[in-house]
């Protein structure tokens, strides 16, 4: 499973543009019964500095089954807390392994 930011769109395909229109979702990557991808299509892999083993991509989540964890348009503030927890965990793990 993964946490993802996604834009909620209406029947006409319109949604709030920019990061203000993003909501936080919990997505199971594969369907439990068929083991196929849960409506996830990779649109673009991003070229980035840093950890290349953990790719960053733009995905199309069309008909993807997910659970919304934040209010509409409040995804960035919601995921910021998760990122801070991850950063703290990585810092503590690095320092403890050096010890």
UniProtKB/TrEMBL annotation:
Highest taxon, organism lineage: Eukaryota
GO molecular function annotations of the record: acyl-CoA dehydrogenase activity
PANTHER family linked: ACD11 DEHYDROGENASE (PTHR42707:SF2), ACYL-COA DEHYDROGENASE (PTHR42707)
Protein name (Swiss-Prot/TrEMBL): Uncharacterized protein
Originating species: Plectus sambesii
